[in-house]
């Protein structure tokens, strides 16, 4: 939710040379049909990502901001008007190079609050 960004799991950061999955990071974030209920994710330093949305979620709309408490704007370069069609409960690769200019992202789903799994790499 706004104010505190979700971070990728400790020990799995690309900046941690001893990471068992060097260069790969994982996180769980809340996605919702209401943007204010969505977690913010610190995407700093990452370029590629995959998202595994919960059951029944078939689209995610991406918003980005330069600061955690800043204004989140639609990332229109992804999908149609920022919306990406996704397969529920399956890993979906997202073109993170279109997100990379933003330090923080939020994903708004077509369903009520649930957690999505994220995997990212630099």
CATH top level?
Mainly Beta
User: Which H/E pattern describes the elements?
Assistant: EEEEEEEEEE
> Tell me about the biggest sheet?
6 strands, mixed
How much helix is in the residues?
under 10%
Quick overview of this protein structure:
The protein has no helices and 10 strands. The chain is mainly β.
Tell me about this structure.
There is one protein chain. With 122 residues, this protein is an all-beta fold. The chain has one domain (5-121): Jelly Rolls. 0% of the residues lie in helices and 39% in strands. It has no helices and 10 strands. The chain has strands at residues 5-6, 24-31, 40-42, 48-52, 59-65, 73-74, 83-85, 92-94, 104-109, 114-121. The strands form 2 sheets. Strands 1, 3, 5, 6, 7 and 9 form a 6-stranded mixed beta sheet that branches. A 4-stranded antiparallel beta sheet has the order 2-10-4-8, with no helix packed on it. It starts with a strand and ends with a strand. Residues 10-22 have low confidence and may be disordered.
From the structure above, extract its key features.
4-stranded antiparallel sheet, Jelly Rolls, 122 residues, 39% strand, mainly beta
Helices and strands in order:
Blueprint: E1 5-6, E2 24-31, E3 40-42, E4 48-52, E5 59-65, E6 73-74, E7 83-85, E8 92-94, E9 104-109, E10 114-121
Parallel strand pairs: 1-3
Antiparallel strand pairs: 2-10, 3-9, 4-8, 4-10, 5-6, 5-7, 5-9
């Amino acid at each position: 939710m706004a104010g505190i960004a979700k971070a990728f799991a400790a020990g799995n950061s690309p900046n941690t040379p001893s990471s068992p999955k060097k260069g790969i990071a994982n996180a769980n974030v809340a996605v919702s049909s209401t943007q204010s209920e969505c977690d913010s994710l610190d995407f700093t330093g990452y370029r590629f990502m995959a998202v595994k949305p919960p059951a029944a979620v078939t689209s995610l709309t991406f918003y980005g901001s330069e600061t955690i408490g800043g204004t989140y704007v639609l990332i229109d370069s992804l999908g149609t008007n920022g919306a990406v069609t996704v397969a529920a409960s399956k890993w979906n690769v997202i073109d993170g190079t279109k997100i990379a200019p933003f330090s923080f992202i939020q994903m708004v789903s077509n369903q009520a609050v649930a957690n999505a799994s994220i995997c990212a790499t630099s």
